[in-house]
Amino acid sequence: MEMMHSVKGEHLGELEELTLLAVLSLADGAYGIVVQEVIERETGREVTLGAVYAALERMERKGLLRSGMSASTRERGGRRRRLFSVTSEGMRVLADVRRAREALWQAVPRAVRSRT
Fold it and tell me: Which of 1.20.1250.20, 1.25.40.10, 3.40.50.150, 1.10.10.10 is the CATH number of 8-113?
């Protein structure tokens, strides 16, 4: 069994997985800063906005995400946001990673799992 899904010759890294999940959780409102906030809130770890944007752009190139521009808003001085969404390929990759993680946890003896 392959542990991490290979995408165009590369493995899905931890930050990429967390970023995909954050985008998915935000539905139609996923843009850089809120993706960063979700990752930090849910993991309890700091992540730089630059790292989040790099992961978003990398995954868009891999076909795991797509983006589009929002309508301009008065509160942003007429500027638009770049909104991200998970593609069907991104959903497939997340499902593959989840299956691999669950299979590995099931392979860990019950006595060891009870310590986590």
Answer: 1.10.10.10
* Closest C-alpha among 50, 23, 54, 27 to residue 39: 23
pLDDT in tens, the chain (116 residues): 344 444 444 578 999 999 999 999 998 889 999 999 999 999 999 999 999 999 999 999 999 999 999 776 666 666 778 999 999 999 999 999 999 889 988 888 876 767 76
Environment class of residue 105 by beta-carbon count within 10 Å: exposed (0-12), middle (13-18) or buried (19+)? exposed
DSSP string, 12-73: PPHHHHHHHHHHHHTGGGB-HHHHHHHHHHHHS----HHHHHHHHHHHHHHTSEEEEEPPP-
Is residue 32 within 8 A of residue 52, CB to CB? The reply is: yes
